Amino acid sequence: MKAPPRIDNSIQTSTQLMVLLLQLLLLLRLSAAPTAAGDAQTNLLNLGCSQYNATKPALFPAVLNATFSDLYSQLNSSSSPLFATSDRPSGPVYSLFLCRDYLSPPDCLLCLSSAVSSLRKCGLANGARAVLDGCFLRYETAPFSDQTTLPGNTAVCGNRTSASAAAAAAAEGLMSDLAEAVPRIGGYFAAAERGGGAAVYGIAQCARTVSESGCAGCLAVALGNVKGCPPAAEGRAVDAGCFMRYSDADFFGGYKTVDLSTFLHSGGSSHKGAIIGGAVGGFGGLLLLCLLVFLWIRSSRKSEKARRGDILGATELQGPVNFHYKDLKSATKNFSEENKLGEGGFGDVYKGVLETGKVVAVKKMAIAQTSRAKADFQSEVKLISNVHHRNLVRLLGCSSKGPDLLLVYEYMANRSLDRFLYGEQRGTLNWKQRFDIIVGMARGLAYLHHEFHVCVIHRDIKSSNILLDDDFQPKVADFGLARLMPSDQSHLSTKFAGTLGYTAPEYAIHGQLSEKVDTYSYGVVVLEIITGRKTNDMRLEPETQYLLEWAWRLYENGDSMKLIDESLNLEECNPEELKRVIQIALLCTQSTVAARPTMSEVVVSLLTRAEPVMHPTRPTFIDATSRVHASSSTSTGSSSMSNATVSITQFSAR
Ligand SMILES: *[C@@H]1O[C@H](CO)[C@@H](O)[C@H](O)[C@H]1NC(C)=O
Ligand SMILES: *[C@@H]1O[C@H](CO)[C@@H](O)[C@H](O)[C@H]1NC(C)=O
Ligand SMILES: *[C@@H]1O[C@H](CO)[C@@H](O)[C@H](O)[C@H]1NC(C)=O
Ligand SMILES: *[C@@H]1O[C@H](CO)[C@@H](O)[C@H](O)[C@H]1NC(C)=O
């Protein structure tokens, strides 16, 4: 796929470059061709600079300038006005530039110069990329032209909300058809339009240097990202090898649209994901799994290369980064008590300050370091580091060479939700913030279950695992780690299922795993958010100690408004919305697994005004008191078994 590197050591002087730029400007002035979209679309969506400087800082700026002028002159030649690459092994600097197909050649040149001035902000960084509405520019010190999806891929959503729910649905449909069709279209670009009254316009594009399967894999990730945008009227997904965008406005200015139906399989756009640790669902799932394995192998080859060469973490967005154990040790002041943020089922978490000044959260995994565990760790880290969603905590990297396995996550200033519900900050969240948290959590989980390549089941959703960013947007933490528990007996481990009151009964008792296990725990957390209390609180009156039981009793008596946290100002709540949310929470916590909604259904119910059609049926409760008895008589079996022994009592009908 890659073009043979051109060995061209001559470096343009800055004067030559200036002349070149002047000529270009002149050219632009002269070519009065009206542009399709009417502008060069130089709105900058995403800029990433490597955290490492080039190894030859004296030479680097000149090679970089030469690279940019390579790109200018390729675009100026009429044979390829929208796409250019440059390989300069003397730097080394490798680069790629790409315009959206609807840009006119002069607009494409303008977009390049805007992208170049953005990348100049990265100084001597040995890698950088800029995504603009109209174009994409990237350089690295190692070849990358076959790369598709990389950490750092994300959604950029507009801040206007679309007029109708129909428009949001049309946008999703259009994006998923584009994701399927574009890998099969020559040039990897398509623009399309959908809908009558509320029209939606969309495009998808892959870099021309990637393979068809690489393009499909990249767009699958992009689709997952962009689906987080509706009901915003505009959304985009940015990544290293592909781009998607939809809008209710015609942003491609009448550029020719494509009839996508001729490129779609008759089966439509329903992809079946494989369930981790479970059976692979059908042929489609198998294909996706193969693709994923292929991507893993490729990315692991790449990181081998990275370790050998000087391109480690070439772009900050590229990962997972392998950190040195000693760096993380000093970042966390030798894992000091003072830096400790919390204790989780998988190990303790510490605040760390890296040498660059970046603040991170470091999780010290509490698992035995067998070679099997290490291998599992590596593959899990690769998987998790590809999960990108604004409601999921980002994994930045790991360390697997030292005495402990460490995971490095982005740091969340506001820490966890439980502190705001019944901890030191209780009563400080208003209803709007709480509702946004309820929706955001559901979106994050829906992504893990239905939109990522494989279905990732969290298994330990609880309010201390929901972190809040500066704007109190929720981010789910600790996903993907459950499989690292020894021999996947996580449901039998008290450390894990010890969060009684959150765990679905079929999983706690029989180890029956499905994504509905997360739906159940989600419902419990939503009730905590509404009531501002813990799921189990022995300090309360006996009849209210178990939140779920109490919520049910009130609901059946038509008294569910009594659940609402006293610290909430009822005047700023919408009572209909509150009722709907309570009903959804109860639907989620039903004993019958099939009766619980999927997380995607939860998102829809939360965002549409309609009442959920189903009415919740009374659940079975885990009786916490008998659990305490069971764990105090550890005569049978291993202690972890007996700790997990639970009994059920049917909630008696009145
Ligand atoms: C761009 O192309 C035109 C003709 O195709 C040529 O006259 C001009 O010198 C070129 N400009 C640059 C900067 O290469
Ligand atoms: C990279 O180079 C810049 C400019 O010379 C300098 O300010 C910065 O500290 C360097 N960064 C690193 C990580 O060496
Ligand atoms: C590279 O180009 C920039 C902008 O045109 C200029 O300021 C800089 O001096 C050039 N550097 C070299 C080494 O040519
Ligand atoms: C929406 O975003 C644009 C640009 O990003 C900004 O100028 C505008 O103020 C924003 N509008 C609202 C309502 O936040």
Automatic annotation (TrEMBL):
Principal place of residence: membrane
Span of domain Protein kinase: 335-614
Record membrane topology: Single-pass membrane protein
Pfam families: Pkinase, Stress-antifung
Name of the protein: Receptor-like protein kinase
Residues passing through the membrane, by range: 274-297
Binding site for ATP: K364
Catalytic reaction annotation: L-seryl-[protein] + ATP = O-phospho-L-seryl-[protein] + ADP + H(+); L-threonyl-[protein] + ATP = O-phospho-L-threonyl-[protein] + ADP + H(+)
GO molecular function, one term: ATP binding
Residues spanning the signal sequence: 1-32
Native organism: Iris pallida (Sweet iris)
One Gene Ontology term, aspect cellular component: membrane
